[in-house]
Amino acid sequence: MPSLPNCPKCNSEYTYEDGNLLVCPECAHEWTLESETEQSEVEKVYKDSNGNVLVDGDSITVIKDLKVKGSSAVVKKGTKVKDIRLVDGDHDIDCKIDGIGAMQLKTEFVKKL
C-alpha cells in the first residue's frame, strides 16, 4: 500500500483517500495529487497592458483615468507609481500613489516604465 503525503495545509500525517480526493481529518483540507503537483510547478505571471512581465519593485505608469472607489479623487492617466507589490486576488498590484495613498490596481490598466 503506497504511503499518502502529509497534508499541505497543516502537515498532518493522518491523511486518507476519499474517492479521488485526499482528506486531512485534522484541518478538513481536501486536495488531489494532481493539484498538488500543478500548484508547485505553476507560478502566476503578471503582465502589463503591453505584455511586459511585472515583478515586485517595478515602476509603472497608469494608462487610463481611474476613479477611486468611495472618493471623488481620480488617478490620472500618466501617473507614475514606484515600488509596486504583486498580490493574488481581484486586483494584482498593491502600491502607494502620491496624494491618494494606498491603492490596489489591475495590471490591465498599467504599463511598465
From TrEMBL:
- Write one Pfam family the protein is assigned to: Zn_Ribbon_YjdM
SUPFAM superfamilies to which the protein is assigned, alphabetical: Prokaryotic SH3-related domain, Zinc beta-ribbon
- Every copy of the Protein YjdM C-terminal domain together lies at 47-112
Boundaries of each Protein YjdM N-terminal domain copy?
Answer: 3-32
Which Gene3D superfamilies does the UniProt entry name for this protein?
2.20.25.10, SH3 Domains
Name the InterPro entries on file.
Answer: YjdM, YjdM_C, YjdM_N
Q: Which family does it belong to?
A: Belongs to the YjdM family.
NCBIfam families per record: phnA
Q: Which PANTHER family does its entry note? A: PROTEIN YJDM, PROTEIN YJDM-RELATED
Task: Kindly provide the name given to this protein in its UniProt entry.
Answer: Zinc ribbon domain-containing protein YjdM
